[in-house]
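Entry type: protein chain
Record version: 2
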Amino acid sequence: MKDTARKHWSKRTRAVHAGSRRSQYGELSEAMFLTQGFVYPTAEDAEARFIKSGEDEYIYARYGNPTVAMFEDRIASLEGAEAGFATASGMAAVNGALTSMLRAGDHVVSSRALFGSCHYVLDEILTRFGVDVTFVDGPDLDAWRAAMRPDTKAVFFESLSNPTLEMIDIRAVAEIAHAVGATVICDNVFATPTFSDAIAQGVDVVVYSTTKHIDGQGRCLGGVILGTEEFIRKTVEPYLKHTGGAMSPFNAWVMLKGLETMDLRVRAQTASAQAIAEALQDAPGVARVIYPGLADHPQHALCQAQMGEGGTVVAVEATDGQAGAFRALNALEIFTISNNLGDAKSIATHPTTTTHQRLTDEQRAEMGITPGLIRLSIGLEDTDDLVADLLDALELA
């Protein structure tokens, strides 16, 4: 049966115990129910379950599964949400949260600085089906106010943008959105559940790519949508269970195991990221360092108030543009060149030619993505080793 987390438990304790369900065998580790279907004692029981399933009653893995339900309950407890729906990937969560609630003629306001695929969903997919989307400069609260309309149904933003680490004032934007009755949807990947209080700060719906810090070891794709019981059960679930974006039971089990160590990993990675950002500030080959934990970041005070720490990602602009960035990337020995983040292994990414390559030069410029920009996801290696690796490589820039 489901084990409800105590309200006084800390996030670290919830990450280990919340949402646990044990079978009749009393297993210690969460059980993996690797099944696509479920059986019914009688035809009448099958009929009754399709009309209304009770707690811990399942029909089909696309609709729900005990292992997936454990993960949904656990991450919802961490985030302070009433319910969650786990998805096949982070982008399935972004798309599901938006598409499930929108229809032709609706209006969405979004921050401009977004992950490339998030931008694609808003700029290409939603508009294709008649949704009007307005992009604004995320930190500019007057721009948010000016963009709101009576038909604005949702606002969307990344609480800490990918890859330029631009912060959104969650409380202020939520207040502006709620004044016109809009639903606030926040992609919270860079903030992580460890540093996030997005729902307490006014967000209605939080989405995560669990592929990142929640798994944390580069094994499985996954995502989750978190919100009120009504939004998840009546809006998100009907859309996703019929369109097939559900998380697999195996991946949910991996995410449960990832949650157990997430707090320890993220805090260690963040401490390294702070030290690395400070070490790179005046280093040869570095034009600028972007990190919310640095005092010169434009939203440093907001970062301290909203997250308390700067997070696990550092952005560095190499001198000599793309050529300099490529020289630095190719000289790295510990950092691996890839496009994931939040991993135990440190990863370097060149957004202009990978994650944001489909955007125009003008769009990238509007987001602050320059040809020399390198996104660094800080892993769990020794901090001094990482600093030395970066200093040696960036000097070649």
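Comment: The first strand starts at residue 2 and ends at 3.
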